[in-house]
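Take the subject:
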Amino acid sequence: MAREIQISTIPRSLPSIPGYNFWVSYLPAEKVGGDFYNFYDAAPDWLGIVIADASGHGIPAAFIVSMATTLFAAQTRNNLSPASILTEANIQLGKAVPTVHYLTAFYAILHVPTGRVRFTCGGHPQPLHYRAHDGSVERLDTMGTLVGLIESAEYGEREVDMGAGDRIVFFTDGLLEAINHEEKDYGLDNLVNVVKKNGGLSAAMMGEKILDDLKRFAQGHKLDDDCTLLILERV
């Protein structure tokens, strides 16, 4: 039941927007986790993008995912401030669920004509922005804590511009915390290295290279948590 609820929150298709490509991989662990991602029409020419992870497993996590998806959809309409969206979602989620349950979330809004990305982070692993013009990788960091835990929580907001060939790599902690037989985490350094090494590839090919590198690292060790990887490419 929990798995069916979770799967129902995941989009059946990716946005089709001229000038941009999307690629996604969702790798479920044996337990039902709380990973989800979605896309929302915020306003004409603006696309909301969320990736999140609910605490716990099973029915509680699935319930939080379902509620959060609805909250984000409602808050995104005609709201171009990711920090405002996360602030309101934090208040509403905190009222609806016990404090032992919470959500990590990264929320971005893409201005399609210009490639400007406005974003905020609520305790979630910070996405990586690969810049094609110099091959650099920047973590998209802002102030912000877990969603649904502290009613008075505040969230920062920043903007970056995506140029032609740029990628933004979104992910959940299941990727970084994947372990091998030596009990070592895959970690951020491995992810940054494979992104830099394959920056000239398409979003889909870069995504496959990341998964190949993760598989090489894990050496057959099973995932302990759901792992979601989402790549946005400006062509």
